UniProtKB/TrEMBL annotation:
Protein name as it appears in the record: DUF58 domain-containing protein
Species in which this protein is naturally found: Maribacter luteus
Transmembrane segments: 12-30, 36-59
PANTHER family xrefs: BLL2464 PROTEIN (PTHR33608), SLR2013 PROTEIN (PTHR33608:SF3)
InterPro entries: DUF58
This protein's UniProt keywords: Membrane, Transmembrane, Transmembrane helix
Annotated DUF58 domain residues: 204-368
Top-level taxonomic group: Bacteria
Length: 443
């Protein structure tokens, strides 16, 4: 039974059969072909049996191993490698089929190569998950054929490997490196010039054009016989909360990823940068109720707590209760904090319904409301209109786009910081706003 499960006919064998059938057909008119066709038939039968002997004589003809990371990173290209080795004494032709998780909906995965005796090769491919959760890789199937290519033998390795998909760890690591190197501008992150200064002294330095004259240190100036100024640094250990709306408005997909997942990836990367810069980070998720509350802590190990909480966040088909959010923030967040609210408003009427609660939160805290541009509408606006229906569609799209900008101005009139961003630029713009608020001493 084991033999039958691993026994397969190679496609080349059917070509041989087609040639023999043609010979027998032609022998009806060319009688000399008839005995030759029978000779070829017996030769093919002999080669068929000999090929079976070559492939099935060795109990372990090949070995293969799939190497998966401990965690896959959502929305990123994750490398998966397969190492395989041949123990056959001849050149073995390999067809590798990896059974990918059903979430990828990919049924045509195949890699073909060949291996010499005792040769080892490594093949690497990438997968891009767009949903968090458990991904199960099925069988790693290796089909081996000899140079005769008449039959194939299947080897099965590593059945049902499960790997969890977490928020974008790769994206977090990119910004982690930049935060350590203090070179965040490489990804378009702006350097914000300080207006005024905070109260944490850093050093005394020589005066350069543009420095605030109010920071001149007259004692040091007298000693050095040149203008010296005090330099201050951003205040540290300030509480910062990422608040994620998990209502139905965050289910909208862009590039295969829901708005919620963009917010989760941004929260993870931003929290890591804030912790590296010695601030406290926390997290709140809410819809009808406050589902998750992680108090702001400064420990770098606190990032693991945030990661685990983000792994289980999901959206619901309900409208979010901003009144419940306000009550929870008032009760639990007692110190003045920076609150980054990830949400989305498609209509200005939806914003006006929640505006009283946003204003109440902004009285005590620095509130940043983050919502999204509809990139598909922007693409529609940029297209050339060729008929009346397209003009109508463009007009409606421009109306929605204008409403987004009006909502941003409405919030800014009340002193609420805002970020209107494309989903793929969310992380960069969020960190930019954080650096701007810290540099201006608004918190």
């Amino acid at each position: 039974m084991q033999f039958l499960k691993s026994f397969y006919i190679h496609n080349t064998f059917f070509r041989y059969i087609a040639v023999l059938a043609a010979c027998f057909m032609l022998s009806f008119w060319i009688h000399a072909l008839y005995p030759i066709a029978w000779v070829f038939t017996w030769v093919l039968i002999g080669l068929f049996l000999f090929d079976i002997y070559l492939l099935f004589t060795y109990a372990k003809g090949v070995d293969a191993k799939r190497r998966l990371p401990q965690k896959l990173s959502n929305s990123d290209l994750n490398p998966v490698s397969v190492i395989f080795q041949s123990f056959y004494p001849f050149k073995a032709y390999i067809s590798l089929i990896d059974e990918l998780p059903q979430q990828f909906q990919k049924r045509d995965f195949e890699h073909k190569t060949f291996l010499l005796k005792n040769e080892k090769k490594e093949f690497e491919y990438t997968v891009r998950p767009v949903d968090r959760g458990e991904y199960v890789f099925g069988n790693l199937n290796v089909y081996v054929s000899s140079p005769l290519k008449i039959v194939k033998r299947r080897f099965v390795f590593q059945k049902d490997q499960m790997v969890p998909v977490y928020p974008s760890i790769i994206q977090m690591q990119q910004y982690d490196f930049l935060a350590i190197s203090n070179n965040l501008t490489l990804f378009g992150l702006k350097k914000i010039r300080r207006i005024g200064h905070t109260q944490e002294f850093e050093q005394i330095k020589e005066y350069v054009t543009g420095d605030d004259l109010r920071t001149v240190n007259w004692k040091a100036t007298a000693k050095q016989n040149q203008l010296m100024v005090n330099q201050y640094q951003d205040e540290k250990s300030q509480p910062i909360y990422s608040i994620i709306d998990t209502g139905r408005v965050m289910k909208m997909p862009f590039n295969g990823l829901k708005l919620l997942d963009y917010a989760i990836n941004s929260t993870l990367a931003f929290s890591n940068v804030a912790l590296k810069r010695n601030d406290k980070t926390g997290m709140i998720t809410f819809s009808k109720n406050v589902e998750t509350f992680v108090p702001a802590v400064q420990k770098i190990t606190h990032l693991n707590t945030i990661l685990e909480k983000l792994y289980n966040v999901s959206t619901a088909f309900t409208d979010s209760d901003y009144g419940m959010l306000y009550a929870h923030v008032k009760r639990k967040v007692t110190h003045r904090s920076l609150l980054l609210l990830y949400t989305n408003f498609e209509h200005i009427s939806a914003l006006k319904r929640q505006l009283p609660f946003l204003l109440a939160i902004a009285k005590k805290h620095v509130l940043v409301v983050i919502f999204f541009e509809n990139t598909e509408l922007e693409a529609l606006i940029d297209t050339h209109a060729e008929d009346l229906q397209t003009i109508y569609h463009k007009t409606i799209a421009e109306k929605f786009s204008l409403e987004k900008r009006l909502m941003q101005k409405e919030l800014q009139q009340y002193g609420i910081q805002t970020i209107l961003t494309k989903p793929e630029q969310l992380t960069i713009n969020t960190i930019n706003k954080y650096l701007e608020i810290k540099a201006r001493g608004l918190l």
